[in-house]
From TrEMBL:
Assigned keywords, A-Z: Aminotransferase, Cytoplasm, Glutamine amidotransferase, Repeat, Transferase
Cellular compartments annotated: Cytoplasm
Enzyme class: transferase
MF annotations from Gene Ontology: carbohydrate derivative binding; glutamine-fructose-6-phosphate transaminase (isomerizing) activity
Residues of the full protein shown: 241 to 600 of 600
Catalytic activity: D-fructose 6-phosphate + L-glutamine = D-glucosamine 6-phosphate + L-glutamate
Domain of life: Bacteria
Coiled coil feature spans: none
Active-site residues, record numbering mapped to chain: K355
Annotated protein name in UniProt: Glutamine--fructose-6-phosphate aminotransferase [isomerizing]
Amino acid sequence: NDIEKGTYPHYMLKEMYEQPGVVRKISQAYEDQKGELTLDVAICKALNEADRLYIIAAGTSYHAGLIGKQYIEKIAGIPVEVHISSEFGYNMPLLSEKPLFLFITQSGETADSRQVLVKVKALGHPTITLTNVAGSTLSREADYTLLLHAGPEIAVASTKAYTAQVAVLAIVAYVAAKEQGKTVDFDLKNELAIAANAIQTIMDSKEEMEQIAHEFLEVTRNAFFIGRNLDFYVSLEGALKVKEISYIQAEGFAGGELKHGTIALIEEGTPVFALATQQAVSLNIRGNVKEVVARGANPCIISMEGLAEVGDRFVLPKVHALLTPLVAVIPLQLISYYAALHRDCDVDKPRNLAKSVTVE
Ligand code: G6P
């Protein structure tokens, strides 16, 4: 049964374990009879007609949206803006001539996102909702729905919905590019299959993540997550996971930005998690690690096969450069899970948080 914990001590652990299966399921759910990745004809048409995509989301879904922007701009060449839903209402940017709105919401019920949907619909703009819940409010009210196929997510801290969002956004970008006759030099289905296996491999190393959580997060007051390019967005999500369930003050930063102020917070022993999965900025992020180490930080470098160096704490299996968020987030989810356990926190039901927030 989808909503039973089974033998797992927590829904969060169960849901993290489901991630390889979710990525595989998405790949199948979005293929046509010939086995090619595809989207609904009406959605393809909407994407083709838009001159700019506006992604609207909150929380973890916003973090997935930041990655979606990279995919859709880099693969499909469609300009994308990503906005926090609660800000959009009174801070609406100048819209392009033919905007298309994409709401990313696991629950499909987030009031902040819905108020934007109501507003832009009133302006007559086309809307798509990317959600895990068919029949949810935002799904019913938008013109089109894209489903996450992640199965019910019960733990308040989102894990499998995030990886599902990233995977579907990659498919959206890929199909949009093909629709426009752009050449795409990789086979996304194949790359998603490789990523699913890699997620499985990382899940199988969960004892290592427990050890890292023990060493770095058991007694600390704060923690930093840094990365560049796609790793930056994953750092934001990793920090959010740690904050949500272990109540450690954690912040994600672009590797190059840390020195412009925040580095003042680095003290003897401050944990700094650094992601190094991006070849083009590999040297730069390692430079940033040296900067914080020189100020006493305790670094935990998570790199990727092919970019690993001696002393890296964990090396992720190699995946396509654009799909690194699918795998880099897994150790961070696991580390936050174990940090919460070690600190006696209620993993599935953290204080002050709700699974879906239906007030603005
Ligand atoms: C709440 C949850 C978060 C979630 C956010 C957006 O704050 O606690 O985990 O990311 O809402 O939810 P949505 O359902 O719109 O993705």
